[in-house]
Amino acid sequence: MDIGRIGVWLGSLTLRAASEEREAARELERLGYGALWFGEGVGTRESFAQAATLLAWTSRIVVATGISNIYARDPMAMANGARALADAYPDRFLLGLGVSHAPSVAERGHSYASPIETMRTYLDAMDAATYRPVPPARPVLRVLAALGPRMLELAAERAWGAHPYFTPVEHTAFARRTLGDGPLLAPEQGFLLNSDPAAARDAARAHMGYYLALDNYRNNLLRLGFGEEDVAGEGSDRLVDAIVAWGDVESVTARVKAHLDAGADHVCVQALGPDPLEELRQAAPSLTAL
């Protein structure tokens, strides 16, 4: 599967009407991005329905779940939904799996258990799932949402690679060391085309506040050397600048290149401004040339 070096994490674009999302997906494909990534959270579109529509609306681009929540469906449903899409759209569907976060899992009516053991058991059940139709020509490729060393090691062992989210460049270097040379490393990078420091940081904080309230992300940042003062509230200037790239196109491109230089194979960029599609248009020539 060729996902290229630069993809798009759709973010707020997935909250728009289907007709708007369809046109955005087609334009992003024309602009040369290699993959479309999207999340699955409480109240979002269901990930396999979302993937199927994006695949149907486009002709070349890879569609990747970033991630499909393992608490949203049982292992057989996950495995066989992915097989159906991989058969219908050869080499264009990438399954990202994740354990989500305790508050989101509780809102679904489940109990959040040990992430590593839960994921390992889930993967075992996926691999054992019966599938009666003709299987896809090639096995489904999957990546794991991984931040800490144990989940990264599991991603190297049981998946094509890892998809870290809400991480600075330092984490990409750490993840590459942990994964080793072979597995795919595809981090997300948020950005704003805004060169006013105060305005850019305010916009970044509007995005970051939700994630900084989640233990998995906070603990990962603390493990990387940020302090409690950095992760408090909506984040210190130091943390904001590390998580969200802001400035002109050249500044954003330099941050994405830093991830690639640190060991990423693919970076999925998430535009955080009021008109994310316009930001992705402006950045496309520079980013897709990397």
Secondary structure elements and their pairing?
Elements: E1 6-9, H1 18-30, E2 35-38, H2 47-57, E3 62-65, E4 68-69, H3 75-88, E5 93-98, H4 102-107, H5 115-128, E6 141-144, H6 149-158, E7 161-162, H7 169-179, E8 184-185, E9 188-192, H8 197-212, H9 215-223, H10 228-231, H11 237-243, E10 244-246, H12 249-261, E11 267-271, H13 276-287
Helix pairs in contact: 3-5, 5-6, 12-13
Keywords:
11-stranded parallel sheet; 290 residues
Strand tally? 11
Helix content: 40-55%
Segments where pLDDT lies below 50 for 5+ residues? Answer: none
Give the amount of beta strand, in percent: 5-15%
Give the integer mean of the pLDDT values.
97
Structural class of the secondary structure composition? alpha/beta
Radius of gyration: 18 Å
- Cα-to-Cα separation, first versus last residue: 19 Å
Name the overall outline: globular
Number of helices: 13
Largest sheet, described in full? 11 strands, parallel
| Secondary-structure element order, N to C | EHEHEEHEHHEHEHEEHHHHEHEH
Assembly context of the chains: single chain
